[in-house]
Design a protein that fits this description.
Blueprint (H helix, E strand, L loop, with lengths): L2 H10 L8 H10 L1 E4 L3 E9 L4 E6 L2 E7 H7 E4 L4 H7 L1 H10 L1 H11 L3 E2 L1 H8 L8 H15 L2 E2 L8 E3 L6 H11 L3 H13 L7 H19 L4 H18 L11 H4 L5 H7 L5 H11 L4 H7 L5 H13 L3 H13 L5 H10 L10 H14 L8 H8 L3 H6 L4 H13 L5 H14 L4 H5 L5 H4 L1 E4 H30 L8 H26 E4 L13 E7 L4 E7 L10 E3 L3 H6 L7 E6 L2 E12 L4
Parallel strand pairs: 9-10, 12-13
Antiparallel strand pairs: 1-2, 1-5, 2-3, 3-4, 6-8, 7-8, 11-12, 11-15, 14-15
Helix pairs in contact: 1-2, 2-3, 5-6, 9-10, 10-11, 10-12, 11-12, 15-17, 16-17, 17-19, 19-21, 20-23, 23-24, 27-28
Length: about 600
Amino acid sequence: MNFKEEFEKLVATGKIKRAEIEPLVQLATHGYCTHRSWGFGKVIAVDAVLGRVMIDFQGKKGHPMDLAFAATSLTAIPKDHILARKAADLAGLRQMAALHHLDLIRLVVKSYGGRATADQIQQVLVPDVIADDYKKWWEVAKREMKTDGHFLVPAKKTEAIVLQETEITLQARLLADFRSAKGLKARLAVTHELVKSAHDLTDKLAVAAEIIPVLNADIASHLRTQQALALEAIFARDDLRHATGAAVIEGEPNASGIWSQNPRLNQLLEEIGAAKHRRSLHSFQESSPVWFEPVIGIINTVSAKLCHECVQVLAQAGHLDRVRDALGRLISQHQASSELLLWLAKDRSDTFADILGPEVFRAMLTAMERDAFNEKKSNRLRDFILGDMELIEDLVGSADIDVIKDLTRALQLSPSFDDMDKRSLLARLVKAHPAVQSLISGEQHAKQETVLIVSWSSLERRKNEYEEMVKVQIPSNSKEIAIARSYGDLRENHEYKAAKEMQKVLMRRKSELETQLGRARGTDFANPKTDTVGIGTTVTVTETGGHRETYTLLGAWDGDPDKGILSYLTPLAQALMNQPSSATVSFEMEGSKKQLRIESITAAKLT
C-alpha cells in the first residue's frame, strides 16, 4: 500500500492536514512509536478508510487513535531504534550485551540522536536487556569506549556520551583536551585521566614529554599563591611519570619547595582533595624530622575525616602515645572540637578504650554548646549522637552511678537538643543505668518506700560483688572483646559475639547492684519491738491442723528458708508484718490459701 497516496486523498477530503502526511507515513512505515504519557507502542494497523491507527501500548492493547490526533501526539521511531529492537528481538540484544558491549552502546546512543547520558543508557537497558550486575558491565563497557576512538566519554556522569563517526585515538583526544584546558585545575583533571588510561596510550613517552613540562611551569607559578593546588599537581605529575616511565627533569619543582615555606598545615590539607590527605601527610613527614608535632597540633582544628588520617599516620610512625596524651588533655579540659569528637565516636577504636568514657560525652555537650554561637558549624556531631543507638551505652556503660547522675543532669540542661531528642537520649541512659530513672522522671518516692533494710554482712557481700565486677570482671571482659575483635570478620567471630553478650550481662548486673546499693541501709537488728511482728523478730505460727513453724524475719538479702530465715520482702513475711500475737493471718502459697495463727513474737537471737 502506498500510504502517501492514501493520505493525500484524505487531505483532499479535508480529513487531515497536509502537514500531517509525513508524520503518518513515518508512523506507518516504521511500525513503532512513542507517546509522552503511554510510552512505547507498536503500530499494528493503519486504516486510511476509517481514518484511524491501532497501537499496542503497554497496558493498552489495540488502542485506536484518530489519524490527525496520532500525527500530532505520536513520534515514529525506526526499526533499528533501541526500543523497537527490544520489542522485536530482545534475545538478540541480550546476546549483544554479553558479547559485543560497544555495538549495544552504539545502538543506544544512535537511538538518542548520537548523544546519551549514562543514566539514559542504564534506564533503557536495565532490567530488560541487562538484569544482573549492570555496574560491573558498565565499567567494562566504559573502558572499551574510551579506547575505541568513536566515543567521547565525559568525566561527569550527567554529561552526554557522544558518538563520532571519525575515529580519534584515546591519546589524541586526551592530548587535545589537555591543550584546550584552561587553568591548572582543568589540566589536572585531564592528567588524572591520562594516568588511569596510561596502559592504552600508543606513545607514553611522547605524552609525558608534552604534559610534564607544562605541569612544571604551572606548579612553579602556583608554589606561593595556591600551595594546595601546586601540591596536588606535583602528585599528578609524579603519577604520570611513574605510569609512562619518563625520567625526572633536573631542577623541576617538588613538594619540599612547598613545605619549606611553612604553610598553614590544616588549611592546606583541607583545601587538597580528600583522596590525597594521607599522601600529603606522608609528603610532609618526609620534609621535616619533627613533623609529628604540627600534625598532632592540627587534629583539633580539622574535619573528622582528616583527623582520622592524621591519627593513622601518627600511629604508623610510632607516635600513638603522644596522640593519646593530646586527646586526653583536650577532652578533660573540654576543649575538643566537635569534629575531633565525631571522629573519636565514629571510630571507637580499642586503641583509645581508656579515653572513651563518660567524659567524652560531656565534652560533646560542651562542644555542641560552643558551636551554637558559630553559624558556620554544622550539626554533624549532634546528628551522629542521635543516630548511633549504641554510642551512649558504649561511653557510659561502665561508669559509676554518681558520674551518670551528673551526666544526666547535664543532658537535661543542654540547649543542643530539643525535648523529643532529649527524651530519646535519656531513655538510652536509663537502658544503660536503670538507677537514673527516678532522677529523669522526677518520681521521688518516700524514703520508707525506697530504702532496703539489710544486714551489715549481706551489705558487705554485695559491695564486694560490685567491686569484683568493676575492677576485675568488666576490665577482663573488655580485654576479651579487644582480643576477639583482632581476629577480624566480626560477622563470623563467635568469640567476639560471646564476649559482647557477656558484656551485656555484666552491665545489667552492675546497674542492678548500683540501684540496690543506693537504696540499702545496714542494721544489726538490735532491740526490735516485739508487740507486733517486724524486722529482727522471731515469730512462731500454727497452721490449721496444729502444725507449728518458727520463722525469723531479717533483711532483704538475708533469706535462708532451710534455716527458717525469711527476707522481710517475701510474701509470707509481708503477710505477718505488723501483726500482733494471737492474730490470725491469711496467706496464699502455690495456689492454695492457708491460715496462720501467731503464737509468739520474740527478738531474734543472732550469733
